[in-house]
Design goal:
Layout lengths: L1 H28 L18 H8 L5 E5 L8 H20 L3 E5 L8 H14 L4 E4 L5 E4 L2 E6 L2 E6 L10 H21 L5 E6 L10 H7 L4 E6 L8 E7 L4 E7 L3 E5 L7 H12 L3 E5 L15 E4 L7 H6 L2 E3 L2 E5 L2 E11 L2 E15 L1 E2 L11 E2 L6 E3 L7 E7 L4 E5 L2 E4 L18 E8 L29 E6 L9 E2 L4 E2 L14 H12 L3 H7 L10 H6 L1 H31 L4
Parallel strand pairs: 1-2, 7-8, 7-11, 11-12, 12-25
Antiparallel strand pairs: 1-5, 3-4, 5-6, 9-10, 13-23, 14-20, 15-22, 16-17, 17-19, 18-21, 21-24, 24-25, 26-27
């Protein structure tokens, strides 16, 4: 009896001590913001740049999320829960974030719902119709309103995968990026400016409309023609008319996009671009070094390809890059349809691999291309690094496959190449660069060789080298940004869409990443580079083994608990049982 009483007293003390310790630990740990993410892809962890942004918010941001709805499909309920979780995570790092999950149609009649949806449409948030099994239609509002001071900003959170599949996975991967982009946009008083160059036969507004629309979500987008105007890219003004003094407020734009020019640049236009770079401007060069184009094969089976005389080589050489006037053939390529016969009056098509249309799948580990899987390019050329300037950092972003052939120009490009079995010995080149990044302090292409006729513009703050570190990206194919345009419906197809195969390549993400990086939004790129897959059940296995899984999930836990209880009873009897 004495031992039994002693044991009870010890057990009670142990119990109360454990409770007190647990309470104390909870109180202590409540003062620390510590969580451990055990997922392989760190899917439940915010990017460091996101945390920094949240901790430095200057004022309250109120977020109204309209994804709630008791009749929403299961996949939307999953996405709603994930959105709530990430916003709760935002709140853990910043007291300036407040949010509400709202069902916009709860308790509303049809007239009120129509009025609410009308307001959403006016503000730029478009409800999505969802077809139900009973053939009725319900609606999901796919986003939120961010309110900051006197500004309200609509954000679409349900985004479609360009490949048309697995929207849930894609939307969750893009969720942090979209939320952070919205916070940055609404809290930034001055958006960075991105400008498309015109005046040298570049792609027109229709051909770049998809990317212009994508870029407008984050930047102010414009178009500019230099036309020999010294102040077209810089804010140059008369400081003192009496003494003829000129002032320079810097660049008018942050990033210049040169998209597939086809006409030569004048020396003055080159000078203007050069000084834009010397003043810290960033440039995305999308250049075809030859005149080869898929459009040339629309009316003929062959055409004569030769060098594009753009008069830009002197600039590129000074910046450490050479775009070669050649054409790449790659065995990793897309196919084109050709008529193989007729059934009645209907033509029958057969797809043939066309090596002049490579699929780029080899990328470096740079954040710009870390999440890029494949790029669609047409008639690309090779790129070489030149010069010995050690202050310029040079990075290859994307290359061809290990089975590449380089065709010098001039040459005849013909569709007949698709019907000829390739000679593998000719495809001995490998990993030829088609996209490169150069960054550092550049030297002006006009240092020491400023033309005599430019003497009168020396006073326009001519710089012989860039005053700060800047960046340029060179891509040897202008079609990488090009989109097909539906003239009937007056809307563009996504950039990178192959109309023949209906495959969506990652051209749009690549261009957006390039502009993000050039504009110093590297934090956004790091968020976009996060990638993970949501684990899904095998529906066939679930159906075939339905009863087994039901039994496992109901009886299994009871069996485990019973075994543990039996083991504990046996241990207690062996340890505390009366010795005979």
């Amino acid at each position: 009896m004495k031992n039994k009483t002693k044991y009870k007293r010890s057990a009670i003390i142990t119990l109360f001590s454990s409770i007190i310790i647990l309470i104390a630990l909870n109180i202590i740990l409540s003062f620390f913001n510590v969580r451990i993410d055990l997922t392989a892809e760190k899917r439940n962890s915010l990017a460091p740049s996101t945390i920094t942004l949240l901790k430095n918010l200057p004022d309250k941001i109120y977020i109204k999320v309209f994804l709630e709805g008791k009749n929403n499909p299961v996949d939307y309920q999953i996405f709603t829960q994930k959105t709530k979780e990430i916003l709760e995570e935002f709140c853990r790092y910043s007291k300036q974030i407040e949010f509400d999950m709202i069902d916009p149609v709860a308790g509303k009649d049809q007239e009120e719902i129509n009025a609410i949806f009308g307001e959403f449409y006016k503000k730029g948030l478009y409800p999505i119709p969802i077809a139900r099994e009973d053939y009725s239609t319900s609606w999901v509002v796919p986003g939120a309103f961010f309110t900051y001071r006197s500004k309200e900003y609509p954000v679409t959170l349900v985004v479609s995968d360009p490949n048309g599949v697995d929207w849930l996975d894609f939307s969750i991967q893009e969720l942090e990026y979209n939320l952070v982009s919205a916070i940055r946009n609404i809290t930034t008083s001055i958006a960075q400016k991105v400008v498309f160059l015109e005046g040298h036969g570049e792609l027109d507004r229709k051909a770049t409309s998809w990317m212009e629309w994508q870029l407008q979500r984050y930047y102010k987008v414009d178009r500019v023609t230099i036309n020999n105007r010294i102040n077209s890219l810089r804010d140059i003004y008369v400081k003192d008319s009496a003494e003829a003094k000129i002032g320079n407020h810097g660049n008018n734009f942050d990033v210049l996009i040169v998209a597939q020019p086809t006409q030569p640049f004048s020396d003055m236009d080159k000078y203007v671009i050069d000084q834009f770079i010397m003043n810290g401007g960033k440039v995305l060069w999308l250049i075809d070094a030859t005149n080869a184009s898929i459009d040339s094969l629309q009316n003929s089976n062959e055409f004569f390809a030769e060098e594009n005389s753009l008069n830009l080589n002197s600039l590129f050489f000074k910046y450490g890059v050479r775009l070669n006037a050649n054409l790449i053939q790659d065995l990793k390529c897309r196919s084109v349809p050709l008529v193989s016969g007729y059934v009645g009056n209907q033509p029958q098509y057969k797809f043939w691999a066309f090596p002049y249309m490579p699929i780029i799948v080899n990328f470096s580990k740079h954040p710009i291309v870390r999440k890029i899987k494949a790029l669609k390019v047409d008639f690309a050329g090779t790129i070489d690094f030149v010069g010995t300037d050690s202050t310029i950092k040079k990075t290859v972003l994307a290359t061809t496959s290990e089975k590449t052939k380089v065709v010098p120009t001039p040459t005849i490009v013909t569709l007949n190449v698709i019907k000829v079995k390739p000679n593998l010995e000719e495809y001995y080149r490998m990993y030829e660069p088609i996209a490169v990044l150069v960054e550092g302090k550049f030297t002006s292409a006009y240092k020491g060789i400023l033309p005599v006729e430019f003497d009168t513009i020396k006073e326009f703050d001519f710089k012989t080298e860039s005053k700060e570190t800047t960046r340029q990206i060179f891509v040897s194919d202008g079609d990488i940004i090009r989109n097909y345009y539906d003239s009937r419906n007056q809307q563009p197809y996504p950039a990178g869409l192959d109309l023949y195969s209906k495959i969506q390549y990652d051209n749009s993400d690549f261009i957006l990443n390039c502009v993000n990086y050039l504009s110093a939004d590297s934090s956004l790129i790091k968020i976009r580079s996060k990638s993970f897959k949501i684990g899904t059940l095998n529906p066939i296995a679930v159906k075939e083994k339905r009863n087994f899984y039901i039994l496992l999930n109901t009886v299994g836990p009871l069996v485990i608990i019973s075994i543990m209880a039996t083991v504990m009873i046996l241990v207690r009897r062996l340890r505390y049982g009366r010795k005979v």
